[in-house]
Every structure is written in structure tokens, then in C-alpha cells.
């Protein structure tokens, strides 16, 4: 009898120890994550809530005493302004055309990086250069290249003084910089396609084009969607290239440029915050569409 | 594997593709280098390469206090931000990769959200908050947002690296009486150093590249970094001089990045793709 009790006690103690260990592990896990979480909450979550709050006020730094609660007036002002909608159109154009071009070129580059045997290191190293270079540096390079009388690409033209030529140059700068990143993400997908499968298809008489569309693309669809999601959200916040290339002149401003102009140049916190909230909402909608409609899996999920 | 069956024509094709990649990557870089080496007399000749290379522009910018100051700001701010993001990110990534605790998924989702965040949406409130607590136009004023945006990248990349580390060693350490913290500090950390190093490079590149925070949250050369300072070169002097000066400044901040890429290409590729493969 007493023996059984002792055994029971032993099991109890072991259980308690195990759950204590479990609890210690949980506590350690939360403790280790806490600083990172606190920083992200304090510097990202709190300010966006503050921006929502500010967007309901007439908050102009030039007249700091005239702050008052004005309901949705800021939203009415922004959403009925043609400057905002032009910028929104420009941003959507750059995002959609940019992401499409980047996907196509990124796939080409990924295939070259994946298939090249001789000089593979050299190719991968050079492909990383545009990714790693400071955007502003590359933007100045493109700007000077297209400046009349100075640049090797400009000749007698001044494309950066006209709207559509400017937009195409902005697109070129953006695509040049981001294709390598796209290619790296796609290359990670390509590495997962089994070589045997491609060989088998080849023996069955499938040409390279068919092998690419029927085998490779379906297999790397998750990688494509993740790369597209990343790039779309990133393209939507385009700022550096436009700031350096045109400063938003000739109706080439993106939503980020317009918001920046309202805040730093116009010192209008209310309008600036309203635009910040609208940009945030648009980004959230884009991400939602990707995840729900295309089933893009967020990296890190298992 | 494919090389063995490839015809000379296919080999030529791949060689051509490689050359195209090189041209693609380097044409804008060589152009900005060549601009920085053109003297005042040949600056406007519109040629791709300089006729008489001179280092004039470089001596000009290094005598310019604003530029030297911004270079110090850039190096200091990016190093500190990278270091802090790494410390916080390493702790969080270890927990995510190795431990089981409530809220893990939320943290991963949150860092994804932050990395996708439109920075401009933060600029307005941060501008106001930083002015109120007097860190506008100071190093901490830039370091804080930089840490925040480097953190998600750090957490992803590192947790992917951490998953590769053999579990058994940590168990063995615990068996020998090490506490979970000691197992982390003495066993896992040394094994994880290559991953941490790669992540440091990626985080540094991200901070080094920032422009939006740098122009919005600074107003003088106290904290202005090189990308922001470069954009202010433009209006300051006559038309001809800034071009060469900007080009030279651009080359100066590009050199460290090119060196990183040359030496650590393999690791950077591994770091950038690790998150995606795991997903």
C-alpha cells in the first residue's frame, strides 16, 4: 500500500516538475521576446494609433493654438483633392507595372542564377549589387544620366521635365533596384523543384517552355506569391526614387511624397496624419487581398 | 548536372546571359563613379567614361564639414541600430525557434506587419512625438525607428538560422546541469554566430539605405546621414559643383556595401532566401 502511494507521489512530483519546466520555458520565451515586442509596439503600433487620433484634428504647426476636433473634415479634404488622387493613380501605376516587370525580369534572372555553372559566384555577386546599393545613390545616377547636357543617356532631351518620360525613368530606377531581390526569393523556390521531375518531363517530350509553365511555375507558386506580396507592399511606399528624380514635379508624386510634402514642407499634421492613415489602410487592404484571394502564406508560418 | 549534356551553343547562351547580368548590375554604378572622377572641364561632355580622371571631387567633399559630419552620423547611427536590433532580435528569434510559449504566432505576425509597414505612416506621428520629447534631430531620434524596421528582418533571418542548429547539443548541456539561459548563452550562441553575422550585414544595409526617416526626422547636420545630406548638396552651391560632389559622396557610401557583397555574397544570399524557403 505504502509502496503504491510512494509511486503515485513520484509520478505527481515528476508531473509537477515537468509542468514547472514547461512554465519556465514559457516564461523564458516571453521574457526573451518582450524587448523586441515592446520596441515594435512603441515605435510602430503606438504612432499609428496617434496618427489616427491626429487625423481628426485641425493640427497645423503654423497655428499651434488653433487645434480643434473637426471630425472627418481632414478625410473629406484629402479624398476630394485632385492632388491626392493623382498621386494615388501614379502610385498604383508604378506598383502594378513595376511588380509585373519585376516578376518577369526577376524570373529570368533567377533562372540564370540557378542554372549558370561557370561563373555562378560572379553572377550572384553582381546581381546583389543593385539590391545592396543605397536607393538614393542609384537614383542620383539615373537622374544625372538623364539630365540634359550632362548625362550619357539624355542627349538633347530633358526627359525629367515631362510627366510620362519621368514616370518611365522612375519605373526604370525602381525595377533596376528590386529585380535582384525578387530573383533571390524566386531562386529559393527554384531550388526546391526536383531535377528528376524536369528530366522525366523532358524524356516524355516536353519542351523547355512547357516544362517551365507546367512543372516549375505550379511548384514554385508559393514563392512567387510571397515575392509578389513583398514587392507590391514595398512598391506602394515608393519615395526615395521619386524624391531624387523629380521631387514629385509634373504630377509624378506618389502618395508618400504628397504626405511628406504636407508634413515637412506644409507642417500640416492633421492632413499629413490623414494621408498616413489612408496609406496604411490601403497597404492593409492589399495584404488582405493577397492572403485571402491568392492564399499567399506569410513567411515564418509553418 | 545540366552542364554535362549542354551543347556548346547552350554554353554560349549562358555565357551571354551572364555578361548581360554583369552589364545590368554595373552600368549605373560605373556611371556614377565616372561622374565623380570627371573634372570641371569634362563634366558636361555627356560621355560615359571620364576623359581625364581626377580626384578633385573627393578632396572637395572630405574638406566639407557637413559631409564628414554626415558620414560619421551614418556610420555611428547604423552601427548602434544594427547592434541593438541584433541583441533584441537574437533573443526573440531564439525563443521563436526553440521554445514553446503562448503568443508566438502573434509575434511572428506582428513582425511581418511591421516589416510591411509604410514608413511614411510613421513619419508624421514620430515627427510630433520626437519633437515633444526632444529627440528630434538627434542620434536616438533615428536609431529608434531604425531598430524597429531592422527587427522584423533580424527575427526572421535568425529564427531560420536557429532552426538549423542541432537541438541535441542544447539538451546535452541541460543534462550536464546548465540552465536554459546557460544553454542559450554558452552552447547555442557560438553555433549561431555565422547566422548572426549574416543578419548583421542585412540589418546594416537596411539602415544604411534609409532616406525617408533621415530627411524627415533631422533638420541640421547633428544627425543627418549621408543619403539625406546628399540631397541637400543640390541647392547649396552652383549647378556644376554639386554633381561631382554628390557623385563622389555616392561612391564613398557605396564602397563599404560593395565590399560586404564581394566578401559575403554566399552568406547574404543564404540570409535573404532562408525566410522564404522555410515558409
Question: How is the main sheet of chain B built?
Answer: none
Evaluate the radius of gyration of chain A.
27 Å
Most extensive interface: A-B, 106 and 102 residues
Q: Specify the structural class of chain A.
A: mainly alpha
Low-pLDDT runs of 5+ residues of chain B are: 235-241
What is the beta-strand fraction of chain A?
A: under 5%
What is the distance, rounded to the nearest whole angstrom, between the alpha carbons of the first and last residues of chain B? 27 Å
Q: Can you say what the CATH homologous superfamily of the largest domain in chain A is?
A: MetI-like
Helix content of chain A: over 70%
Largest sheet of chain A: 2 strands, antiparallel
What's the mean pLDDT score of chain B?
A: 84
What CATH first level of the largest domain in chain B would be assigned?
Answer: Mainly Alpha
Give a topology summary.
The complex is a heterodimer of chains A (302) and B (279).
Chain A (H helix, E strand, L loop, with lengths): L1 H53 L2 E2 L9 E2 L3 H7 L2 H34 L4 H13 L2 H11 L17 H28 L4 H9 L4 H12 L1 H16 L3 H6 L9 H11 L3 H26 L8
Helix pairs in contact in A: 1-12, 2-12, 3-4, 3-6, 3-9, 4-6, 5-6, 6-9, 7-8, 9-12, 11-12
Chain B lengths: L7 H30 L18 H8 L1 H34 L5 H12 L4 H13 L6 H26 L2 H9 L4 H30 L2 H5 L9 H11 L3 H39 L1
Amino acid at each position: 500500500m505504502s509502496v503504491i502511494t510512494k509511486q503515485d507521489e513520484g509520478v505527481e512530483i515528476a508531473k509537477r516538475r515537468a509542468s514547472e519546466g514547461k512554465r519556465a520555458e514559457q516564461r523564458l520565451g516571453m521574457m526573451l521576446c518582450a524587448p523586441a515586442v515592446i520596441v515594435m509596439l512603441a515605435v510602430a503600433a503606438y504612432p499609428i494609433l496617434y496618427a489616427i487620433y491626429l487625423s481628426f484634428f485641425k493640427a497645423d504647426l503654423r497655428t499651434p493654438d488653433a487645434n480643434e476636433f473637426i471630425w472627418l473634415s481632414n478625410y473629406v479634404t484629402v479624398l476630394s483633392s485632385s492632388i491626392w488622387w493623382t498621386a494615388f493613380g501614379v502610385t498604383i501605376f508604378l506598383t502594378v507595372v513595376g511588380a509585373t516587370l519585376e516578376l518577369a525580369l526577376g524570373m529570368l534572372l533567377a533562372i540564370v542564377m540557378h542554372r549558370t555553372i561557370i561563373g555562378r559566384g560572379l553572377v550572384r555577386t553582381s546581381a546583389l549589387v543593385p539590391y545592396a546599393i543605397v536607393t538614393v545613390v542609384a537614383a542620383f545616377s539615373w537622374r544625372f544620366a538623364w539630365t540634359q547636357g550632362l548625362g550619357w543617356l539624355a542627349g538633347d532631351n530633358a526627359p525629367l521635365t515631362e510627366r510620362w518620360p519621368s514616370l518611365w525613368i522612375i519605373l526604370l530606377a525602381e525595377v533596376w533596384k528590386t529585380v535582384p531581390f525578387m530573383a533571390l526569393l524566386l531562386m529559393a523556390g527554384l531550388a526546391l523543384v526536383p531535377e528528376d521531375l524536369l528530366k522525366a518531363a523532358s524524356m516524355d517530350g516536353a519542351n523547355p517552355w512547357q516544362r517551365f509553365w507546367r512543372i516549375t511555375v505550379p511548384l514554385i507558386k508559393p514563392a512567387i506569391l510571397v515575392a509578389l506580396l513583398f514587392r507590391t507592399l514595398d512598391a506602394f511606399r515608393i519615395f526615395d526614387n521619386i524624391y531624387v528624380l523629380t521631387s514629385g514635379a509634373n504630377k509624378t508624386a506618389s502618395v508618400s511624397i504628397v504626405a511628406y510634402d504636407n508634413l515637412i514642407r506644409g507642417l500640416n499634421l492633421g492632413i499629413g496624419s490623414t494621408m498616413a492613415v489612408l496609406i496604411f489602410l490601403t497597404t492593409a487592404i492589399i495584404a488582405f487581398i493577397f492572403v485571402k484571394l491568392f492564399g499567399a502564406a506569410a513567411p515564418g508560418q509553418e | 548536372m545540366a552542364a554535362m549534356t549542354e551543347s556548346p551553343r547552350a554554353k554560349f547562351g549562358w555565357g551571354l546571359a551572364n555578361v548581360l547580368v554583369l552589364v545590368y548590375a554595373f552600368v549605373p554604378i560605373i556611371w556614377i563613379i565616372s561622374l565623380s572622377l570627371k573634372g570641371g572641364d569634362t563634366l558636361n561632355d555627356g560621355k560615359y567614361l571620364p576623359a581625364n580622371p581626377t580626384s578633385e571631387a573627393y578632396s572637395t567633399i572630405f574638406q566639407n564639414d557637413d559631409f564628414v559630419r554626415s558620414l560619421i552620423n551614418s556610420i555611428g547611427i547604423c552601427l548602434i541600430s544594427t547592434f541593438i536590433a541584433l541583441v533584441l532580435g537574437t533573443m526573440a528569434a531564439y525563443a521563436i525557434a526553440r521554445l514553446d510559449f503562448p503568443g508566438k504566432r502573434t509575434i511572428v505576425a506582428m513582425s511581418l506587419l511591421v516589416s510591411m509597414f509604410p514608413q511614411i505612416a510613421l513619419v508624421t506621428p514620430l515627427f510630433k512625438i520626437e519633437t515633444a520629447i526632444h529627440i528630434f534631430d538627434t542620434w536616438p531620434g533615428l536609431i529608434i525607428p531604425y531598430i524597429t524596421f531592422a527587427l522584423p528582418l533580424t527575427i526572421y533571418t535568425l529564427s531560420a538560422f536557429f532552426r538549423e542548429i542541432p537541438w541535441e547539443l542544447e539538451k546535452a548541456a541541460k543534462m550536464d546541469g546548465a540552465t536554459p539561459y546557460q544553454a542559450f548563452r554558452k552552447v547555442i550562441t557560438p553555433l549561431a554566430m555565422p547566422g548572426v553575422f549574416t543578419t548583421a550585414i542585412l540589418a546594416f544595409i537596411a539602415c544604411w539605405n534609409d532616406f525617408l526617416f533621415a530627411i524627415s526626422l533631422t533638420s541640421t547636420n547633428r544627425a543627418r546621414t549621408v543619403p539625406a545630406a546628399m540631397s541637400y548638396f543640390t541647392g547649396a552651391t552652383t549647378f556644376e559643383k554639386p554633381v561631382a560632389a554628390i557623385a563622389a559622396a555616392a561612391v564613398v557610401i557605396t564602397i563599404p556595401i560593395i565590399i560586404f557583397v564581394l566578401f559575403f555574397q554566399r552568406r547574404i544570399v543564404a540570409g535573404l532566401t532562408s525566410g522564404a524557403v522555410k515558409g
